[in-house]
Amino acid sequence: MHPNPAYRKADDAANLAFARARGFGILTAAGAADPQGFPLLSHIPFVLSDDGTRAELHLVRSNPLARALTAGPLPAAIAVSGPDGYISPDWYGDPQQVPTWNYVAVHLRGVLRLEPQAALEGFLDRLSDRFETAIPDKKPWKMSKMDRGALDKLLRMIVPASLDVAQVDGTWKLNQNKPEAARLGAAAAVETGSGAELAALAALMREPPA
Q: Which end of the chain is more exposed for a tag (fewer CB within 10 A), N or C?
């Protein structure tokens, strides 16, 4: 996360709302490494509780992170990324500038643990409901649509886990450290450049967190 306080003015409520809306991130745990000693990472969907203190998720049983958790809970984090894009110095209208990259990211830190297998169906119901109900004009999919035998076979392949969230950090790097004219000039041009969700990034650059 960028240490500049100008980029870290969003409060916990805004950071949690962003993470909850995205519902997808990169999970890593302290002390969990592959045979070469590299940190373990897993891309996971999750559901964040209303109060932001708990994230529900699941892992494939054969995932090395799932195996590491069989020895007990681990300190862990979920990194949630948002819109991002390259910023050309030409867009500021000031020749004494350099290129940079704007982005939004939130980190959820806490303790990761496996949950009882009996909790899995509830986890999956809440996860699918979260995203199914966000699709306009669609009747939400339910696990009850599946043949029970086929469902049980799939459920045996995954395990439920949760992150008890103890710390929330957010970086909203949107040129807040630049004069307003320079920031708005970059916002007007960013959609012509490289990155992801550039229209959303431009909108955030026009009105960054206060």
A: C
Residue pLDDT, tens place only, 65-111: 999 999 999 999 999 999 999 999 999 999 999 999 999 999 999 99
- The torsion defined by the Cα of 44, 49, 51 and 55, in degrees rounded to 10, comes to -30
Contact 110, 165 (CB under 8 A): yes
Query: Strands 158-173 and 74-87, how do they pair?
Result: unpaired
Interior/surface letters 78-99, b for 16+ CB within 10 angstroms, e for the rest: bbbebbbbebbeebbeeeebee
Beta carbons of 24 and 16 less than 8 angstroms apart: no
Rounded-to-integer distance, Cα 154 and Cα 82, Å: 31
User: Cβ distance 183 to 176 under 8 Å?
Assistant: yes
Whole-angstrom Cα distance, residue 185 to residue 140? 42
Q: For residues 26 and 106, what is the distance between their CA atoms, to the nearest angstrom?
A: 11
Q: What is the pLDDT of residues 18-53, one digit of tens each?
A: 999 999 999 999 998 999 999 999 999 999 999 999
Tokens in use for 49?
A: 């509780």
pTM, whole model, 2 decimals? 0.94
Helices 180-189, 198-206: axis angle to 10 degrees equals: 160
Q: Can you read off the two tokens belonging to residue 122?
A: 């509830």
